[in-house]
Amino acid sequence: MSSLICSVIVPARDCAAMLRESLSALRASTLPRDQWELIVVDDGSTDETAATAAAFADRVLRLPDGPLGPAAARNRGAEVAQGVLLVFVDADVCVRPDVLTAFVNAFGTEERIAAVFGAYDTDPRAAGLVSQYRNLLHHYVHLTHYGDAETFWAGCGAVRRSALLAAGMFDEQRFPRPQIEDIELGYRLVANGDRILLRPDIQGTHLKHWTLRRMLVTDFKDRAVPWMLLLLERGNAGRPGTLNVRHTEKILTALMGVALAGIAVAAVLVDPRWLLLSLACIVCVILGNLTLLRWFAERRGVRFALAVIPLRLAFYIVSGTGAVWAMFVHITGWRRISAPSLRGALQ
């Protein structure tokens, strides 16, 4: 029987430079090296990802038919893993030295705890407004939801191997590219009666650079649409949730929708009074983000917090648009009738 406590699984694709940093960070772990193994799954890379991984990993799996997506890559790693706990770390995340030890301690002896996940730290590598905003927002959301969660995050998260197998592993058929495959897994774990803990003190530095276009496309195509479809299929789209599906966020998204409708009506009727309604809704959305904006100001200054406001408004617009599109698809059954066409529309 294996004496390994952890199997660290890193899905990677065309990321040799970042992978060297992330694997170097894992090598500095305080958990004794004989208690964990490192598995890198190369998802059809065309660069030196496999060679880079070989210099650090105990095992490198290559998916010759890739890219198959991170869900499939994590599953392939889990299938050969020997550890009791499976720790998933994205190739663009440099974990702190205490992360593996913290995961082991977080599980403790309570068997109902099936998964634990952490957060990005407040020092993202990439400069620029969008990258700083995106990564700091992730940290803030996780920081303010410490404790039991109903979803999972595989960027820096751990799952009991037995719980993952019982839940059916990541859904690689539904999620052939990076989307909400970890979130969906979390729902299934909780449905099995397991507990998931969010521990924002377990942290890693994110290396990813975000552009405005990439952020908006990701929020629509890989977050809002599939997440709303998932909630609708589960029948809990209107139920209070954690993270970005709280009632407050839904209300702010609806207010932004009303603001856009008011602008449209004002343009059609040439009646500026409708703009007052839009302005009032936008002010309400900003006020609803005051706690977040104050937190941004404390860490990056008032100018940064003010510059974030348009990005927050854009987030609600994209989220609302994605939710409406997902509801249309769900109600009409268009996805079932013409799945290839839908995939093309979202690409």
Structural overview:
The chain contains 14 helices and nine strands. Strands 1, 2, 3, 4, 5, 6, 7, 8 and 9 form a nine-stranded mixed sheet that branches. Helix 9 (247-269) runs antiparallel to helix 10 (273-288) and helix 11 (290-300) crosses helix 12. Residues 336-347 have low confidence and may be disordered. It is globular, with a radius of gyration of 21 Å. With 347 residues, the protein is an alpha/beta fold. The protein has two domains: 6-209, Spore Coat Polysaccharide Biosynthesis Protein SpsA, Chain A (Alpha-Beta Complex); 243-346, no CATH class.
CATH overall fold name of the largest domain: Spore Coat Polysaccharide Biosynthesis Protein SpsA, Chain A
List the total number of helices: 14
Termini gap? 46 Å
Oligomeric state of the chains present here: single chain
How many strands? 9
Mean pLDDT: 91
CATH H-level superfamily title of the largest domain: Spore Coat Polysaccharide Biosynthesis Protein SpsA, Chain A
Along the chain, the helix and strand elements come as: EHEHEHEEHEHEEHHEHHHHHHH
Our Rg estimate from Cα atoms comes to: 21 Å
CATH architecture of the largest domain: Alpha-Beta Complex
Task: Describe the global form.
Answer: globular
Unreliable parts = 336-347
> Structural class of the secondary elements?
alpha/beta
Question: In what range is the share of β-strand residues?
Answer: 15-25%
Helix fraction by DSSP (H/I, runs of at least 4):
40-55%
**CATH class bucket of the largest domain:** Alpha Beta
- Largest sheet features: 9 strands, mixed
